[in-house]
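Writing this down once: the sequence line spells out the residues, with the fold written below as integer tokens. I am pasting one below:
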Amino acid sequence: MGMCSAVVFSPLWRFACYHPGLVTITRNSESTMNNKYWSSVVGKLTPYVPGEQPKLANLVKLNTNENPYGPSPRAIEAIAGETGANLRLYPDPNADRLKQAIAALHSLSAQQVFVGNGSDEVLAHVFMALLNHPQPILFPDITYSFYPVYCQLFGVEYIAVPLSESFEIRVDDYRQANGGIIFPNPNAPTGRLLAPAEIEHLLTANPESVVVVDEAYIAFGENKASTIPLIARYSNLLVVQTLSKSHSLAGLRVGFALGHSDLIEALERVKNSFNSYPLDRLAIAGATAAVEDTEHFDRTRHAVIASREKLKQQLAQIGFEVLPSAANFIFVRHPQRDASELATSLRSRSIIVRHFKQPRIDQFLRITIGTDEQCALLVAALREILG
């Protein structure tokens, strides 16, 4: 079931039609796009398609991995405190307050911290600064779909390394010549976690390559699942995180990278050749306060973890296969029901989940962990659909 809405950015386009996991732009039949001014790169790009942001009444939105709980009250207060006359001034280009807060939290120096406008921008700089080499980079065949997009954009060769039959990353498969390695941990969209000891094996097996661990969802795993403590021993490790999910600040757009100061310097050189002011005053203030409010962070992440484990049990009871997850989402399939049909049936009940039309996982649904009330509505709807 699709939903179309008029767009206003160009008279050459008539409608933008939104479907779960798919965006299609329909041309105005009376006009054709004149693309003779495009660079050679543009025509070859297959842009990343973000999760749908539908405008439906009484929506249960479980498709974009947003945190169901609000951000720290201290963050909201700090943001409000910046909405004054100082907005006429540029923000701190280095975001020193935020870097110092992040460094203190993880027992690092500020020179080991890089910040950007969401982790996607941080990752873009990573691909340009650290992963653009003659040899292909390696990442899983089922993973964050922005990685191949960045490879296209920056002309980076890559090899998609197959996950195991149970959708796990096998470290031994990455013992091959490469220009770098990147993967999410927990992986997306599967939610499966690679233990720090396994990542350490990966680091020791690839001393000449940068290993980038994208920890967008690490807050919802075990307490010691992050690879940040390994930074002190491995100069080829870069850890990327975001405040979007863990700190309920998806609307603020703040991400960061942690690693050896030489890696961070490379990112700074790229950033300052692109945009010297990636974080505005509101983002710096709100993010700093959120990072410092560890009590709110712990309380909300534990609430999400508890809801996830409860939902996993409930879905298993009605016949779903649920992959192990250390994220704020679960990856599930039903052996007798088509995933696309299930997603459509849920949508008709104003419940939105994510369906990927991709080989190997086209029978899976990725379901964000909502509040207990939202999860209960999901389970009730699925019981009704399954009969």
